[in-house]
């Protein structure tokens, strides 16, 4: 034994002198540090210091030797860094992904899960696990987090004296509940004695890790296993691994019994998780956890039970203590800063009241001030104070060159308190995270969740969990400090901990409404009833006057279904579904062809479907250009943009027309082709070749295209805002149409008081906020560059001149900013036009593409003709598309036109008559809403033989010549026709061309079975499925 020890010492000395006189030491010794002992370096400082003193030493080191220092641990060097530029160099690189040696102590527990793995295994696991933190999956987790927040509140109410004696332990108990239920789908509270052992084992493993970290001679697993602490670790690991393995086995058995039907839904959404809760999880009430995802993908990635266990254990470890300590410090900071606590409480209370006292994901996302508080708390007290990496090659930092193989300690704690980046760094100020203050800050001066490729995969989860716990806490309690942050004694650990229990006082808030409050509520209800009575009386009086006038005499000549006095047909419209409304409307069109009327209270809608009448209305230059009631409903969103504008419509149209010039469209075509390629790639990744929701799938890509061409912004680069933006647009579409057929919501004041009105306000806040931010950033960019690209945009010459720089695409937003420079528009005008084009070009193109794909899938012969045309043109262009190539696809264009005939994306146009108008059969008085049915005009057998048949040759030049020009108006007609129709046709061509080139389209759902709904855009009531079978071009 002595001989072995002597040999080891000799080898150690030999290694020391080899390193001391080599290149490695020559670089390291240039980095400043305290004097060190030969052979041992600074290792004795570590052995002699307590965890508490080790923390102080590291802080002193960072202050004395800022921004870089070193420590020798025998022959091995640690280099500490606390300068954001240096951190960026290391963390943003894909080369330095290996974690430091201290993480090796976690291997017995976590093996090589996501936290500790490296190389190809890390890349593969990261790819597998990323979908588990998608917006749609987080929506399921949020219910668990909110429940746990409510459990914390209930537990605090049961504490005598309102004092929590150990806040970190109390919070840790609940965060472990939350992480276990979201990771494994297991409620610890219901697991009896085994959950007590599990909790204790996790706690013991944390203590063992720190114990071993402070004793370098225990770095060797074989030596450590012989010690009492090593035996204790083995006992804890048996409990931890046994617990996880039992749950994995039970979960797998459960899915086998259910034929993996939940897993199939789950795995199918990994590449395109855009559906709602029901689609992602199979059954509304069935929550699936990260463990279910791992079981679902295990066969595809050759993952065995051991691989699954290490990822589950990793997430329990990573998401338990970090969130617990993040919450602990946030609670203490709020307790010490009463004015900030009160601001958080006001925000939470307002949102809770708007949501009837309940929390939801959207409610948490609205808590912007609370989010700033949490970010500032994580700045002052990051849960992980140090990050460790091993350099895989020499790195030149700002001051020194650090050699390959060095362990780097990245000092997050000190960077977050660097006065060069954070004025008054020790002050708790949530407003540091206002958008305008973030913009110019160094991106690596704030990294509570690390940064670069190995950043924390669960950071959105963590922020939502902290919000879900803090929100009910401040809503139900006043927080008061007992222990103060200035008195804390921090210790060295992987997690930012203190050496003692932390106490806080939570005083319950009584939310029982007072007598005065109840009286005020009764008064409001009485006033509302009085207002409704006055409205009813006024409506009755108006109806009586109206019924005896010229208006009613003219209207009553027009045929209609029998109606009720006073209410007209409104009652029928209110009680039937949107699906039935579509059927009723088209039945009336057939029965009362070519004109009919309906009364909605005192308002009249006249349905028209004859081309002569449509021509008279749409070609008018002054009488019938207003869009009336629909316009007023759209105004909160689109303002007075081109679609909605009445007074200055001509001026806006003139400004915007050049945006769709040939040279500008040429740039847009590049975006369309890129998005078409993205669609093809996404389809190739779908298992089984079946798209389960074609509309959702296509809309994802058309929204990308419209945003990039309109604003120059790729939604993929918008991070968490992408899903919010998409959801807000979808929500607003539903709200607008619901309001259209509820006349009592016509008043903006009344509508604002409803739940739908509040939802609209919330959606508008998101949409307007994102677009205003993009406009502001783009204007700042042009101010910095003196608008040089804009100057070239104004020239109407070749491609290079138009875009300024060959690789710089300019968009409609750039064009509008150019016009604003000439004082033709302000920022509000720009925002209105951008939002108008997104609204008009998103849903319409999505539905047109959907129906075209379905028609081609059902008509194989026509699909094959399109494919032949596309293949010939692609071969002639060396397999690439361009604007000229798309323009040559005449047969595809005829197919698109015929698809738009059968299924126009806008099924009707609304106008309001401003004076008497003589139609073919009747005189229509002013003030009437004119409902121009494009859908029925396009299927009129007087103009279209066999109108239900899909026949692209209807649009051969010789067949178009003698056709009524107003029998086909998919893009409207007359002065207010669609300004972007050429844009729409090019986008549809680009996407369909690539689709038929790469896939055989086969129907799953058939057009005859589609159930349409009444909407602003021609939609159906259910998902549409289609099969896309890849074509192998190698043969």
TrEMBL record:
Membrane topology listed for this record: Peripheral membrane protein
Subcellular compartments: Endoplasmic reticulum membrane; Microsome membrane
Its job: May be involved in the metabolism of insect hormones and in the breakdown of synthetic insecticides.
Keywords per UniProt: Endoplasmic reticulum, Heme, Iron, Membrane, Metal-binding, Microsome, Monooxygenase, Oxidoreductase, Transmembrane, Transmembrane helix
Name by which UniProt lists this protein: Uncharacterized protein LOC105432372
Principal location listed in the UniProt entry: endoplasmic reticulum
Gene Ontology molecular-function annotations: heme binding; iron ion binding; monooxygenase activity; oxidoreductase activity, acting on paired donors, with incorporation or reduction of molecular oxygen
Entry annotated with the keyword Transmembrane helix: yes
Any single GO CC term annotated in Swiss-Prot or TrEMBL for this entry: endoplasmic reticulum membrane
Cofactor: heme
CDD domains listed in its UniProt record: CYP4
Annotated organism of origin: Pogonomyrmex barbatus
